[in-house]
């Protein structure tokens, strides 16, 4: 067989071999020191939480801000949200949060609410859950205090599109995600289908950090400071009364009380600001 024919015969094999070498030898920087462990296997065992928890297909996970011993789990295939108790193990308790396993568009408690294959959600500072219910063209809210699911955007329109304005009249594409921005007290909407970044302002109580609320001196300490300042002023006036013999002394005492009043106003302003 001529050399040229032999080369042509083996050329495809050589090309495939070079392609295989390229696939298994990419320009990677492999960093060691990490390990992977399966902590819950829904295929093998039924974790505590009832028969419903046995059929979970985890799609997305996110920790809760306030409930540090709970993890939020979304099963998009069943349109259902679960809470998983930490630390994670095969015995972790899995509880229904909202959805009930049915596909639809309804609000209500954990078993009455229904979604349509959501794929993304966000959690605010008070553990309220905001669901990108994309096929229903709506944004839903699961309240952390009542457990009730409500529709906060897209409730009137219920169709795809690009409409801003009052949230219930707004429309979205069928491909959007949510991000909670605590400093803005808002949800940012990555509306991929419309190639937009949009913003939905939340209620102030949704963004209040429970760990920060109640801090500061508050109204009772302000009253206490005011009472102490008044008592101090009266005591000072009573003690200094025998020594007030001239107009200059009177002016000095008046100046003292004016400075005391200014200090009190500054303290009050600071407390109101905090």
Structural summary, described in words:
By secondary structure, the chain is of the alpha+beta class. It folds into two domains: 51-207, Neuraminidase; 219-273. Helix content is 27%, strand content 21%. The chain is built from four helices and eleven strands. It has helices spanning 3-24, 204-207, 219-240, 247-273; strands at residues 60-63, 70-75, 80-85, 94-98, 121-123, 129-133, 138-142, 149-153, 176-181, 186-191, 196-201. It has a four-stranded antiparallel beta sheet with strand order 1-2-3-4, with no helix packed on it. A four-stranded antiparallel beta sheet has the order 5-6-7-8, with no helix packed on it. A three-stranded antiparallel beta sheet has the order 9-10-11, with no helix packed on it. The radius of gyration is 32 Å and the shape is extended. The protein starts with a helix and ends with a helix. Mean pLDDT is 80; it is low at 214-220. Residues 1-20 form the signal peptide. InterPro entries: 6-blade_b-propeller_TolB-like, NHL_repeat. Keywords: Membrane, Repeat, Signal, Transmembrane, Transmembrane helix. This is Non-specific serine/threonine protein kinase. It comes from Apostasia shenzhenica.
């Amino acid at each position: 067989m001529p050399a040229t024919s032999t080369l042509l015969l083996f050329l495809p094999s050589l090309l495939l071999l070079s392609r295989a070498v390229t696939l298994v030898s990419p320009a990677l920087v492999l960093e060691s020191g990490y390990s992977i462990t399966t902590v819950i296997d829904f295929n093998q065992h039924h974790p505590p939480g009832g028969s419903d928890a046995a059929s979970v297909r985890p799609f997305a996970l996110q920790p809760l801000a306030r409930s540090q011993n709970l993890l939020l789990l979304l099963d998009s295939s069943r349109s259902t949200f679960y809470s998983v108790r930490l630390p994670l193990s095969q015995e972790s308790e899995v509880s229904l949060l909202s959805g009930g396993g049915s596909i639809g568009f309804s609000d209500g408690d954990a078993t009455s609410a229904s979604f349509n294959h959501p794929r993304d959600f966000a959690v605010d500072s008070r553990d309220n859950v905001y669901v990108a219910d994309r096929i229903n063209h709506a944004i839903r809210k699961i309240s952390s205090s009542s457990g009730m699911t409500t529709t906060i955007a897209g409730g009137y329109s219920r169709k795809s599109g690009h409409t801003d304005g009052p949230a219930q009249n707004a429309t979205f594409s069928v491909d959007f995600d949510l991000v909670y921005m605590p400093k803005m007290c808002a949800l940012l909407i990555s509306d991929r289908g419309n190639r937009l970044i949009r913003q939905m302002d939340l209620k102030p109580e949704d963004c209040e950090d429970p760990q920060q609320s109640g801090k500061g001196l508050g109204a009772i300490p302000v009253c206490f400071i005011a009472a102490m300042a008044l008592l101090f002023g009266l005591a000072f006036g009573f003690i200094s009364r025998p020594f007030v013999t001239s107009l200059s002394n009177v002016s000095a005492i008046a100046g003292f009380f004016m400075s005391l009043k200014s200090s009190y106003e500054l303290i009050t302003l600071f407390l109101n600001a905090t």
